[in-house]
Amino acid sequence: MDDVIPIPWESDVVQEFLEAQFGSRPFVFVLIEGDAVHAGETAVKKAMDARGIATPLARGVEALYPKIAAPFGRVVHGEAPAEIHGTYRLNDDAREYIEAIRQEHAEREN
After folding, report:
1. E strand residue ranges, 23-101
2. How far, in Å, CA of 21 to CA of 17, rounded?
3. Is the distance from CB of 7 to CB of 13 less than 8 angstroms?
């Protein structure tokens, strides 16, 4: 998954992206793929599939996500993830933040 760019939720540009995409700043796991934004369980499924993880294991992780996401989020991040799941069209207002997200990733890597 060389094209997956991890950026922390706390990042200003991520916060701006979330506001533009969802109209708020939910604490949610998101994958942006072309014109699609995958969130929550759907993002987990897409990440597992993209990594080539065997289907039974991938579906197991996907099934565990709703059970462990809230406790994990509270312990590790101090907040439970928002109940946002599915694939959404990338909003035009949110699209303008994609390059800034890539730039922030590049700066973090250096």
Report:
1. 30-33, 36-39, 86-89
2. 6
3. yes
Find the angle CA(104)-CA(101)-CA(94) to the nearest 5 degrees. 155
pLDDT, tens only, 25-65: 999 989 999 999 999 989 988 888 887 888 888 788 888 88
Cα separation of 58 and 29, whole Å? Answer: 16
Q: How many Å apart are CA 87 and CA 66, to the nearest integer?
A: 16
Cβ–Cβ under 8 Å, residues 20 and 93: yes
- Over residues 90-107, the mean pLDDT reads 88
Alpha carbon separation from 43 to 24, 28, 31 (Å, rounded): 18, 10, 6
What is the bridge-based pairing of β-strands 86-89 and 30-33? unpaired
DSSP 61-79: HHHHHHHHHHHHHHHHHSS
Instruction: Give the C-alpha separation, 8 to 29, whole Å.
Output: 10
**The length of the chain, given as a count of residues:** 110
The residue behind tokens 């809230």 is 70
